[in-house]
Hints:
Elements: H1 3-20, E1 25-34, H2 41-52, E2 61-67, E3 70-73, E4 79-80, E5 97-101, E6 105-113, H3 115-120
Parallel strand pairs: 1-2
Antiparallel strand pairs: 1-6, 3-4, 3-5
Amino acid sequence: xxxxxxxxxxxxxxxxxxxxxxxxxxxxxxxxxxxxxxxxxxxxxxxxxxxxxxxxxxxxxxxxxxxxxxxxxxxxxxxxxxxxxxxxxxxxxxxxxxxxxxxxxxxxxxxxxxxxxxxxxxxxxx
Length: 126
């Protein structure tokens, strides 16, 4: 299960970024993961829940956006969406391509609470 180290990296980066802004709790983390990485979203969700325990990301919602693969043929310049196991250009039938999308993992956004937000949500005495 290669999702565990991916989840651990997501938690580590999100916690560091949120802490740098004084956050006390992370509510949502959005990641973009290229299809070529072959990440199983359900497995990543489980791994995220396990690796976030005891951190300010515990209980946070992990939103996963899968990015389709795109390739450019180095022979004819045609841009197309290959399959994971088939990199043959549909125009010239050569397998000499450059992957231009779908191979990345990007921590896109973090929604977190800061001490000021937490205090403003507490009930005020009457």
